[in-house]
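Record 1 of the preview.
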Amino acid sequence: MPYIVSTGIAKAPYEYQQKDILPIVREMFSDRFPDIDRLLRVFENTQIDTRRFCMPIEHFAETHDFKRKNQLYIDNAVKLGMDALKNCLDQVQLSLNEVHHLFFISTTGLATPSIDARILNELDAHPHMKRTPIWGLGCAGGAAGLSRAYDYVQAHPDELAIVVAVELCGLTFQRDDKTKSNLVATSLFADGAAAVLVSGDRASLKGKLKIKGTMSTLLKDSYDVMGWDFSSSGFHVIFSRDIPTLVKRELPKTIREFTNFYRLNEEIDHYVIHPGGKKVLEAYQKSLSIPVEKLRLAEQILRENGNMSSCTVLFVLDRFLKNEPIQKGEATLISALGPGFSSELILAEGV
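->
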């Protein structure tokens, strides 16, 4: 079975408390909603303390066209992606040229050549490295990228694959979008990057977790649950208030199907969950009867960083691997939800 060998993260340079962001949001929405102070309680209810962005807070007080925002995405995605990749490889003192395949994950900007090509160019990687840029999976992208790396090293058991996820959600901010979805988004999303190294079972590098299997699920006719609506000014968030309800309704049967396939009848020992928001975590906890303590790391990452889309579950995985004791044979469920409406599940086992 393939192994999760190492992880690395990169944090955006500008850190702000939730209270630092409130004045801009109040000014932006006050003429649209007479009850703005009541709506702004969403900032307190997120249970997020701090978030990081690639641009200073003054940037968000101004209107920027899509071309400007996307160029900032390219410049910052390359830098943060390189930092996360190098941090991941440094954990095991590995050269990039010893890696065979790079999977790049993002949904918050556009680039052709893709960001992975630019990262490999900057790092002077060997010219024959395989690369797969994956776009459009949103918050599910980190887990999905890990699944696709698993697929690759299953087919190439002597090789190594690295997943790099970069999301600059702050750059999608729409100052002139006065919808409630955009208001909620201003309280949740942030920037970051993460990387995970995966090895085939015949490669020399091993890790604390081996992957037993994965499952991707797409809910039919659910396009309007989350995603982007595009205009000349860029990305406008689609964010349904029904997400927690869908989690409670769909996730238990999906996970049952997954664990039954792998004949996992005993309790899952560890949960590495994408913390999309407080209500999503509560929906996980209640619908699956997960002890609150087992979601502690996901809650910590959400509180300290906000929702960094695809990177967030990899931040949880990074903290889990570096701080938690994992016994041989213990089952770990890695899970993330995204547009589509979709879910990605990964079952791993302690080595």
